[in-house]
Amino acid sequence: MELKGVLEELDIVDSEELLVEHWEKSEASFSSELPRFLTAETITETRTLGGLESKADLELHEAAHRIVSSPALLHLAWHCQRLLFEHLDYEPAKISQWPVLSRTLGDLSGAFYLLVALEAVPRIRAVHAELGIPDPVSRDTCHHYLEPVRMYRERYAGHFGVQPRALYWWRNHIEGDLYRLGRLEYMLKPFNGGLRAYRHRETGETIALAVDGKWFDRDGFATRADGEDAWSTRSEEREGSAVGFPIAPFGHAVDREVALPLSEWELTLSPGDRIMEVHIPAGGNMTPERCRESMRQAPDFFPRHFPDRPFVGFACYSWILNPQLAEIYRPDANMVLWQRELYLFPVPSGNRSGLYFVFGEDEVDPDTAPRDTSMRRALLDHLAADGGLITGGMFLLSEDFEHYGTQVYRGQWSAVLEGLSL
User: Fold this and answer.
1) Is 282 left (phi over 0), alpha (psi -120 to 50) or beta?
2) How far apart are CA 389 and CA 396, in angstroms?
3) Enclosing H/E stretch for 207
4) What pLDDT, in 10s, does the model give residues 54-111?
5) CB within 8 A of 270, min separation 6: which ones?
6) Is the pLDDT of residue 422 over 60?
7) Which of 320, 292, 304 is closest to 396 using CA atoms?
């Protein structure tokens, strides 16, 4: 079929630029056989492995029937799953803009994309089998569908589906990069935090220095060069010392140049070093104990299955690592307790970080948004008072995991900074 004809029939002609890429390749690979992800047996199997409840079957099977009955929908569904899982050069930003098909499918529009997303399950299982990933880990990793579907149901009156913006994440699963180990998920990735961390050769104390050219505001949080009261960092090696501006483990930079004699301090983490990048599935009950147990598993799991990919520690970037969360929410919240075991650092972000994950929307009205949880009430009260919501980063070096539970980086900080020269 011609793309223009498909788009005209589905009344989504404005999406041609988004969908034209690789269309001819998709058509060349199209078969008269029913695509795997639209067969009744596969739908039930993948829905089950994805952790979704059986009541999803009604809408998924009905959506599949509607798709199979419409050549235009069938060719579009085939093309979308090819773009998502076969053509990894296709930009995630375009996936997030895929059209809503409500004019053709009504309330089943989200189920169309959920069926496309569920095609990841057999691919994940095949990759995991080839790599020898334990079945419990494989099954837990497949449960990534739970949160995007929950958010969709909350926004669309209980209907099952996912928004296009959620689809790109399954690429990490089908490439065998992302794994859930207990409460948290992990990928081996290059560290891209704007800092270098140093360890004292005798005491084991750790300090991070910002890389050259980073901008911070008066509170030490990341900002733009034209931000109010913005100041920038310098970083260099001078006379046998690493010279730069410290980042406190509480998540802010310090406007004070220090020198670390390299005879005393060893570089332990730099941009580009491989780390276990932590991702935080929704679901609550993120206790420090559950986080510790998950993080204990990761350094055993990855060397066993990827022995050629050494790493230096953990890192994460998330709204959950907002260093102001203790004041915005509660100092005894599980997320805040986890923060205290980590070395927090500032990262560039907008001022509405986390709203999508808490409300399903990037922007909310504090006067009308739902206040049915303590987290939602806290964030809305903060926004109503003209407060911002930022993203934060963290690292935890492998050598320091044995001190988890002691707030090792925070406990060292005063002594470390006091002992440094200007």
Assistant:
1) beta
2) 23
3) strand 206-210
4) 999 999 999 999 999 999 999 999 999 999 999 999 999 999 999 999 999 999 999 9
5) 191, 196, 197
6) no
7) 292
Cα dihedral 357, 363, 368, 372 in deg (nearest 10): 10
Is the Cβ–Cβ distance between 84 and 181 less than 8 Å?
A: no
Residue pLDDT, tens place only, 11-20: 999 999 999 9
Strands 392-397 and 246-248, bridge-based pairing? unpaired
For residue 214, what are the contacts with CB-CB under 8 A and spacing of at least 6?
A: 194, 222, 232, 233, 253
Question: Do residues 386 and 393 make contact, with C-beta atoms less than 8 angstroms apart?
Answer: no
pTM here is 0.93
Tokens representing 341 are: 């075991």
Among candidates 208, 169, 193, which has minimal Cα distance to 348?
193
Q: What does the alpha-carbon distance between residue 256 and residue 233 come to, in Å, rounded to a whole number?
A: 9
**How far is Cα 274 from Cα 28, in angstroms, rounded to an integer?**
39
Q: Which residue has the tokens 């837990």?
A: 140
290: Cβ–Cβ under 8 A, 6 or more apart, which residues? 182, 183
3-class state of residue 168 by DSSP: helix
CB 252 within 8 A of CB 350: no
Q: Name the region of 45 (left: φ>0; alpha: ψ -120 to 50; beta: rest).
A: alpha
Cβ contact 233:245 at 8 Å? yes
DSSP at 371: -
pLDDT digits (tens, 9 = 90+) for 227-244: 889 999 999 999 999 999
Name 185's bridge partners: 180, 279
Distance of alpha carbon 372 from the chain centroid:
25
Residues 6+ positions from 203 with CB-CB distance below 8 Å: none
349 closest CA partner among 373, 386, 321 = 321
Give the H/E segment covering residue 244.
strand 241-244
What is the C-alpha separation between 173 and 46, in angstroms, rounded?
14
